[in-house]
Amino acid sequence: MAAHETDQTEPMAQAAQGYLNDRLVALAALGALLFHPLFVGLFDAPVLVMGIPLLFLYLFGVWVLLIIALAVTTETAPPATIERDDIGSGSF
Fold first, then answer.
1. Straight-line distance from the first to the last Cα atom of the chain, in angstroms, rounded to the nearest whole number
2. Are 59 and 40 in contact (CB under 8 A)?
3. pTM, rounded to two decimals
4. What is the DSSP letter of 88?
């Protein structure tokens, strides 16, 4: 690989990694908000939906949706580029 090709791919890989980090932080903040006791308390009512208490349905529904959002976010992210010189160099 020529030197000018690595110069162009490295900033793109860093931008993609930064984009992924931003999306993961946003998902963590959304999860913290959706599981906050004040927000969860809105769904603590004596209501059954298809025989399931509303609170349990909300908690497990949000949990599943966050897992799906995390999977979609990480799977659609562009792969990070690792050069052969970085592998096994022993530096962290």
1. 24
2. yes
3. 0.65
4. T
Q: What is the pLDDT of residues 70-88, one digit of tens each?
A: 999 888 776 664 455 555 5
Contact (CB, 8 A) for 54 and 45: yes
What count of Cα atoms within 13 Å lies in the side-chain half-sphere of residue 49?
A: 9
Look at the block and give the residue holding tokens 């599943």. 64
pLDDT in tens, 36-55: 999 999 998 898 989 989 99
Q: Which two tokens stand for residue 7?
A: 């110069």
CB 10 within 8 A of CB 64: no
- At residue 61, the 3 state secondary structure works out as helix
Query: Encoding tokens for residue 68?
Result: 């799906």
